[in-house]
Amino acid sequence: MEKTIFETERIPFKERCKKDIKIKIFAFLFFASIPIFSSSEFNIISILFILFFLFVFLFITYNESKEFVYKIEFENEKINIFGSNFDNDWIEIFEIKKVNIQIRKHVSKTGSVIGYTIIFKSGKKKITINRLYNWNNFDLHQIFTEFKKIKGEKIIIDEKSLIDGIKKKAEDEDEWEQ
C-alpha cells in the first residue's frame, strides 16, 4: 500500500496563541464591561470579576493552543500523526484497527458552522485535529474517508451528514478538489 500524506501549515506556539486569543478577546471585553457599566461604584469585586474572566480566557487559550497536529500519514494499516506540544515535535503511531475516529461540528450561537474537528481515540490517547480551524476542509473529508476505507468500516448515517457538511463547507470556500 502506498503512503497517503495530509499536511497543513506548521504554526509556532506563540502564533497559535495569538490566533486563538483574537477570538476570545471580544468575549473578554464583553464580560469585563458588565461590572464597569452595571454599577455606579467600581469596587474590588468588579476588579476580581474582570481578573477571573481574564484568567479563564488565558487558561482556555493556553490549553487549546499547546498541542497542534500538522501532518497525518496513512501507511500499511498504521496511522502516523505528527504534531507539536508547545514547539516540541512529536509523532504518534497507531494501528488503524485499534483507533476510532469521530467528527465534531462546531457551530456559533447563530447556528452557522464555524468548523469541524476530527478526533482520533485509542485506548489511552485522544488526538484532536483542526482545533484552530486551519486545516483545509477537503483534507478533513479525505482523512476521514481514507481512515474508514483502510479500517474497512462503513460510514454510518450520522457520519454521512457530517461528511456532507464538510464537503459543502469546502465547496463554499473553494477548497474542494476534484
Jot down its keywords.
178 residues, alpha+beta, 4-stranded antiparallel β-sheet, elongated, transmembrane helix, transmembrane
Question: What can you tell me about this protein's structure?
Answer:
- Keywords: Membrane, Transmembrane, Transmembrane helix.
- The chain crosses the membrane at residues 21-38, 44-62.
- With 178 residues, the chain is an alpha+beta fold.
- The protein contains 4 helices and 7 strands; from the N terminus they run βααββββββαα.
- It is elongated and about 65 Å long.
Tell me the layout of helices and strands:
Elements: E1 4-7, H1 13-38, H2 44-66, E2 67-75, E3 78-85, E4 88-95, E5 100-107, E6 113-121, E7 126-129, H3 137-151, H4 157-172
Antiparallel strand pairs: 1-2, 2-3, 3-4, 5-6, 6-7
Transmembrane segments: 21-38, 44-62
Keywords: Membrane, Transmembrane, Transmembrane helix
Structural class of the helices, strands and pairings? alpha+beta
Low-confidence stretches: none
Helix content estimate: 40-55%
Number of helices: 4
The number of distinct β-strands equals 7
Percentage beta strand = 25-35%
Spatial order of strands in the largest sheet: 1-2-3-4
Distance between the termini: 22 Å
Total number of domains:
2
Order of helices and strands: EHHEEEEEEHH
Largest sheet: 4 strands, antiparallel
Write down the Rg: 20 Å
Q: Which word captures the global form?
A: elongated
**Average pLDDT metric:** 83
